[in-house]
Each structure stands twice: as C-alpha cells, then as structure tokens.
Amino acid sequence: MNRQQEEELAWVTARARRALGEAEHLEPRAILNGYRRALRVWHHPIASGTGELPWISHTVFVQGKTGRMATRRVLWERSTDVAIIADPSLRATSPARLEPTLRIADALVTPHEIELLVEYASRIRLPLVGYPRAIAPEDDARGVSFAVGRSTTTLEWSGSEPEAWKPLMEWVERLQRLLQHALDG
C-alpha cells in the first residue's frame, strides 16, 4: 500500500473501532430504546494465513423497567475494506470517503444465563500490574468492558498474555459463545 492508502485504511480503522465500541449509536437504534449498555466483549484479530479476519464486538444491553436483555453484534469486514483501498479499480467505484463495511445483528438473550456468567466474573481476581511484559501484535486485541451506573471498567489484552488473566479470557470466550448462540438461534 502507498502512503495515501495507508492513511485511508487508518481512517477507516478508526471509524470501525468507534462503531464497534458504540453499538448503541448504529442503526437501527429504535430496537434498543429503553435499553442501557451493561457490558461489551470484543476481538480485533490479526490477519491469519488465510487472510483478514473480521473484527467483532458483542454488546449486552439491559432494559431498565423489565430487566430484559438484548445483544448487538457488530462485525467489521476489514478484508473487504482493505481490498477496496488496495485496488484502484474497486476504489474508483466506491464513495469518496469510504466508511467501514459493518454487519449488525440483534437478539434477545436469556437474562438468567448472562447473570450467572456476570456473577462468576465478579469472583475472578486479576493482577493488574507486576506480570512479565510480552510483545504481542499491536492489532490483535481482546477485551471486556463492564458498565455499572456511572462506573466503567475496561480490560484489554493481546494474544494469550498475561497468563494470570486466563480465567478472564476463558470467561470472555464463554460469553461470546452464549451471545453468538442467541444471535444464531
């Protein structure tokens, strides 16, 4: 990629990160009226041997009055945007300012299952400092963010480090599978 293409990819990546992080601001928004964000898990993978993998975010929302829960998955088709930016013939037929290629899906989730997982997560203990530093790919990121009232806790890591965070990493994978199952259902 030339410098202009790299800059355009950086701009699209920044827009995609924002969309993945603020699922409630994406259309269709009416579905989430009366819901507030409770937690979010994400994975922004590095490219595999078979090409680019999509970046994905699952956000769980709670309806204040009823306690109903919903999830929204936002998936960024990074490979599509990289291909458009890298190929002048594709770029010529796309809008002047390329927006990230996103796929959005919503589903209701069973509150009991989410509450059990959140209760389990509340017992996980993590060292936040003092573990050996490892060099991991900058663009391979996983994370979780909890929102309680006005407080938010966000943790993000790369690869499988730090080792002491394994219980949290396994919990995030369980939650992602549960949310994906609701979306597939």
CATH topology: Mago nashi protein
Work out the helicity level.
25-40%
Kindly report the average pLDDT value.
87
Shape: globular
Number of contiguous helices: 5
> Assembly type of the shown chains?
single chain
- In CATH, the architecture is 2-Layer Sandwich
DSSP strand count: 6
Report low-confidence residues grouped into runs of 5 or more: none
Structural class: alpha+beta
Spatially, the strands of the biggest sheet line up as 4-3-2-1-5-6
Short characterization:
The protein has 185 residues and is α+β, with helices and mostly antiparallel strands.
Task: For the structure shown, list the relevant keywords.
alpha+beta; 185 residues; Mago nashi protein; six-stranded antiparallel beta sheet
Give a verbal description of the structure.
This protein has 185 residues and is α+β, with helices and mostly antiparallel strands. It has helices spanning 3-21, 78-86, 88-92, 111-121, 166-184, and strands at residues 35-44, 55-63, 69-76, 102-109, 141-148, 151-157. It has a single domain (3-184), classed as Mago nashi protein. 34% of the residues lie in helices and 27% in strands. The chain has a six-stranded antiparallel sheet with strand order 4-3-2-1-5-6. The model has no long low-confidence stretch (mean pLDDT 87).
Describe the protein's topology.
Elements lengths: L2 H19 L13 E10 L10 E9 L5 E8 L1 H9 L1 H5 L9 E8 L1 H11 L19 E8 L2 E7 L8 H19 L1
Antiparallel strand pairs: 1-2, 1-5, 2-3, 3-4, 5-6
